[in-house]
Predict the 3D structure of the following.
Amino acid sequence: MLAGLLLGCGNAPSEDQRAAEDAAIADRVREANETGPPIEEVVPETISYPDMETNDLLGQGCAYAPGTSMGVRVIARETDAYLKIDGEMVRFAADPGSRELPSNTRSLYNGRTHSLRLAVGEVAQEGEIEDTTFEGTMWLYDRWDRVVYTGTGTANCGV
């Protein structure tokens, strides 16, 4: 019987083995906690003129319309930006530390569940008064910083 106990003691993992196993388990748990759920793509809807009036979105800013569509998907202003998702206007707060774009807009806006990154390229058309049309790109990220929507088209900036 004493021999059985001694043999049982010899099979126990060493402290180094136990520490390596614990580290591997901790890595798997950390990886599982950091992995988000499957990506849910978002397709922003066109912001209508009544949406703009209701949310007081008329005035200085940039309106982004992806593709060849004239339907505005994002309205960015100095302090905030709006996107229409599932029939609701979603507000994003400007990140004051991000790069400044035309019409005092910003390159990054943060919302409760998503963040919005904007960029403008070359001038496509100079306006007569203060409006200027650029090539514009928008990216919508989920809370795990994964792109759930991207669109490139025009960005009309001005008053």
